[in-house]
Amino acid sequence: MKYIGNVVLLVLLIMLSTNHNVWSQDKFKLVNFNTEDGGKIEAAYFNAGKTKIVIFAHGAVFNKESWYFLAEEFQELGVSALSIDFRGYGNSTKGNTEKKLFDVLGAIAYAEKQGFKEICVVGASMGGAAVLSALSYKQTSVSKVVLLAPAGGPPIKSSEIDKFFVVSKEEGLYQSVKQIYAESQESKKIKEYPGNAHAQNMFKTSYAKELEKLIIDFIIL
Predict the structure, then answer these.
(1) Residue 25: what pLDDT?
(2) CB 204 within 8 A of CB 197
(3) What is the domain range of residue 34?
(4) Is residue 98 assigned to a domain?
(5) Is the pLDDT of residue 117 over 50?
(6) Can you tell me the distance from the alpha carbon of 183 to that of 203, in angstroms, rounded to the nearest whole number?
(7) What are the pLDDT digits (tens) for 32-74?
(8) Is 164 in a helix, a strand, or coil?
(9) How do 188-193 and 80-84 pair as beta strands?
């Protein structure tokens, strides 16, 4: 009887897990877009109308799913979101780090084709570096950028883009991020947190909720 009870419990847990996954997938659809250098990128599109969209670019040890929690928050607030898998991740085309800027540019072009008038980008670590490289490579319609400890990349020279940098004071990229920030044009602001949590790992800290609110307020207001 104990064995049967354990089996029933296991089945119930699987059913609950399955239902949760179905519920989550109801909030987005998987889409694909091509990049100008011939790549193909898969992304999760959280539709909340065509007014404003946030593009999420993940770090090296993360993937598009790592941004779903924040994409859903924006969706509930009436802001659409597009969370991409960089080349070499998930079902996106294989590729190397040097070409990831085209993945960001492809996401921006996809958002433009969908009719969005206001496009924002959030990038972390590797994703932040790709965002910086993309914005340096060509002029875009991006209006706001959030950069969580970008792992390198050029400063943003456009004064038409509002910029929000976030970094931990004791992490390895602190000085690099400060330099990129200092050399970027206004308007800009930076938030420095204590400790050494890097980029998306800051969402695992005690100030995670505060950081989420800062990002949401920056994008929405």
Answers:
(1) 73
(2) yes
(3) 28-220
(4) yes
(5) yes
(6) 27
(7) 999 999 999 999 999 999 999 999 999 999 999 999 999 999 9
(8) strand
(9) unpaired
- Check residue 162 and give its pLDDT: 98
Non-local CB neighbours of 100 within 8 Å, separated by 6+ positions: 86, 87, 126, 127, 129, 130, 133
Classified as helix, coil or strand, 41 is: strand
List residues bridging with 46 in a β-sheet: 81
Please report the beta strands in 97-216, taking only residues with DSSP state E, as ranges in sequence order: 118-124, 142-148, 162-168, 188-193
- The Cα 189–Cα 167 span in angstroms is 11
What's this model's pTM, rounded to 2 decimal places? Answer: 0.89
pLDDT at 35: 97
Give the pLDDT score at 60: 97
| Residue 10, in any domain of the structure | no
The answer to the question of residue 15 being in a domain is no
209, two tokens: 């909720």
CA distance 134 to 53: 17
User: What's the mean pLDDT in 134-161?
Assistant: 98
The β-bridge relationship of strands 52-57 and 29-34 is unpaired
Q: How far is residue 21's CA from residue 118's CA, in Å, rounded to a whole number?
A: 30
Q: What is the CATH number of the domain that holds 152?
A: 3.40.50.1820
pLDDT score for 24: 56
Tokens of 51: 């007014």
Q: How many Å apart are CA 40 and CA 177, to the nearest integer?
A: 30
